[in-house]
Q: What sequence folds into this?
């Protein structure tokens, strides 16, 4: 069984995920809106650079390991 490569980053923005992680699993890459909906639906942890900023006010970072696990489960053939 072929294993997919993984990254060493712990957290990344959606733009960073689209640039480095998503292309390892999906080509072409889905839109940001689609990814956000998938990640929210899968309860993937999201962090803010400024924890006191509830809406807006900074970038959101996603757990790269959780994103990779989600994509492996979603793209693995049966």
A:
């Amino acid at each position: 069984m072929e294993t997919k490569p993984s990254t060493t980053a712990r957290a990344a923005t959606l733009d960073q995920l689209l640039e480095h992680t998503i292309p390892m699993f999906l080509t072409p890459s889905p839109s940001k809106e689609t990814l956000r909906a998938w990640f929210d639906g899968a309860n993937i942890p999201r962090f803010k650079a400024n924890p006191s900023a509830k809406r807006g006010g900074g970038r959101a970072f996603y757990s790269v390991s959780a994103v990779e696990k989600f994509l492996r489960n979603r793209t693995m053939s049966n």
